[in-house]
From TrEMBL:
InterPro entries: dITP/XTP_pyrophosphatase, ITPase-like_fam, RdgB/HAM1. SUPFAM superfamilies: ITPase-like. GO terms for cellular component: cytosol. Pyrophosphatase that catalyzes the hydrolysis of nucleoside triphosphates to their monophosphate derivatives, with a high preference for the non-canonical purine nucleotides XTP (xanthosine triphosphate), dITP (deoxyinosine triphosphate) and ITP. Seems to function as a house-cleaning enzyme that removes non-canonical purine nucleotides from the nucleotide pool, thus preventing their incorporation into DNA/RNA and avoiding chromosomal lesions. Mg(2+) binds at D77. One of its GO terms (biological process) is purine nucleoside triphosphate catabolic process. This is dITP/XTP pyrophosphatase. Belongs to the HAM1 NTPase family. Keywords: Hydrolase, Magnesium, Metal-binding, Nucleotide metabolism, Nucleotide-binding. One of its GO terms (molecular function) is ribonucleoside triphosphate phosphatase activity. Binds 1 Mg(2+) ion per subunit. It comes from the Bacteria.
Amino acid sequence: MTGRKLSAGTRLVVATHNKGKLAEFRDLMGPHGIELVSAGELGLPEPAEIGTLYAENAAIKARAATAATGLPAVADDSGLAIDALDGAPGLFTADWAGNPRDFAAAMARVDRELALRGVATAGARAHFVSALSLTWPDGEEAIFEGRVFGTLAWPPRGAQGFGYDPMFVPDGLALTFGEIGPEAKHGLPPHGQGLSHRARAFMRLAETVLPPLQNLAGKA
Ligand SMILES: O=c1nc[nH]c2c1ncn2[C@H]1C[C@H](O)[C@@H](COP(=O)(O)OP(=O)(O)OP(=O)(O)O)O1
Ligand SMILES: [Mg+2]
């Protein structure tokens, strides 16, 4: 594993065109003093996500951003795996929302596909996966993964978050990711141990490559 760290003040490209993800990256990384600029803001093209693993697709996105900018980059590739659908939509989670993205339609497709199999959507087991790839201009790379298990809600509930958040209830809570808001969805220490797939992957990345949290006044 790399011993390399990102230092405070480093410019890091967030290789995503998803505004919801970008907002989460700003929440997660901001307190570590990293300066973030997104691939969307830089007008970088979206590479084809042709990998067969989340980790491969994350690396494809991060490498493309580093190659285009000469800066270190981080990318997330993520998805929702539903047990009764044999892990679908999985790597195709974004594709189910079509182009332009329509997540109400994507969630309705989940409900339809489960109905075809005679499975109730409410209570169906599912999990989110996030793979984060970090790439440096000299070709060094690192990968971090996180997941969160839970059940589906139907109909969707809550207007916070993005994507399939309104239909996912993490184990241990009664509310959807769309209802609990970003802070609770991250569930970071000191109030939690990391809740969302992305926050859990981020915590692994942070402990490996980020400078420690800058102490806030009044907190030790
Ligand atoms: O926390 C989440 N809460 C709700 N839905 C989520 C989450 N995390 C991933 N998802 C869903 C929506 C997303 O569209 C797809 C991932 O697809 P994925 O290709 O990784 O992202 P994307 O195409 O939206 O943006 P980009 O590739 O530019 O980073 O899974
Ligand atoms: Mg994508």
